[in-house]
TrEMBL record:
This is Peptide methionine sulfoxide reductase MsrA. The gene is msrA. Belongs to the MsrA Met sulfoxide reductase family. Has an important function as a repair enzyme for proteins that have been inactivated by oxidation. Catalyzes the reversible oxidation-reduction of methionine sulfoxide in proteins to methionine. The lineage of its organism: Bacteria, Bacillati, Actinomycetota, Actinomycetes, Kitasatosporales. InterPro entries: Met_Sox_Rdtase_MsrA_dom (IPR002569), Met_Sox_Rdtase_MsrA_sf (IPR036509), MsrA_MetSO_reductase (IPR050162). Coiled coil: none annotated. Gene3D superfamilies: Peptide methionine sulphoxide reductase MsrA.
Length: 221
């Protein structure tokens, strides 16, 4: 999105922008590629996963191209500001990541397979950046929706760290935190499925080239 020259630092709750009680924009009703609703409630049997892996434009496309994913939407998560705007998130004063919400059918694609895609689609060792995108909003994070998701995410991080270390990479900086208490605030309409609307648009997503072990993150229940 853009390069921030100052050293990124997360705000405290007291320093964060307050936001607003209602969003200042309308979220589109349906996904431009998959055709399904963006915002829940979602059909019974589907599950929700939240990931942050840098610029959410390219990250969202990775997931909507995955078989078994019912819908995706981008937003802001993990910070303090209520109903933030994109400009506020980029200011570094919200504490939010640029996140992707993935609604999926676990009978078709498992949470473990989504974790594998997450790890391999970015560099989780870079802290408050992805490539040339610098800022706290670009940090790597997983927001889990159940104890099973949390256990799977922890196991996958441990397994991926081993292969990253063997390949000469640094320590993973990815946050793994409960989604509870960390609301997902949908982003503006023009960010939703951005690379479908702008096929030649910017995509800052790029992995380490190190494969994540398959089958290390089973989820039951």
């Amino acid at each position: 999105m853009f390069l921030n020259s100052r050293t990124p630092q997360l705000p405290t709750p007291e320093q964060a922008l307050r936001g607003r009680p209602v969003p200042g924009f309308t979220v589109p009703s349906r996904h431009t590629v998959l055709g399904n609703p963006l915002v829940g409630p979602y059909p019974e049997g589907l599950e929700v996963a939240d990931f942050a892996l840098g610029c959410f434009w390219g990250a969202e496309r990775k997931f909507w191209q995955t078989e078994g994913v019912w819908t995706t939407l981008v937003g802001y998560q993990g910070g303090y500001t209520e109903n933030p705007t994109y400009e506020e998130a980029c200011s570094g004063l919200t504490g939010h990541t640029e996140a992707v919400r993935v609604v999926f059918d676990p009978a078709v694609v498992t949470y473990g397979e989504l974790l594998k895609l997450f790890w391999e689609s970015h560099n989780p060792t870079q802290g408050f950046r992805q490539g040339n995108d610098v800022g706290t909003q670009y940090r790597s994070a997983i927001y889990t929706h159940s104890p099973a998701q949390a256990a799977a995410a922890d196991a996958s991080r441990e397994a991926y760290q081993k292969v990253l270390t063997a390949a000469g990479h640094k320590e993973i900086t990815t946050e793994i935190l409960p989604a509870e208490g960390r609301p997902f605030w949908p982003a503006e309409a023009y960010h939703q499925q951005y690379l479908d609307k702008n096929p030649d648009g910017y995509c800052g997503i790029g992995g380490t080239g190190v494969s994540c072990p398959i089958g290390v993150a089973p989820v039951e229940g």
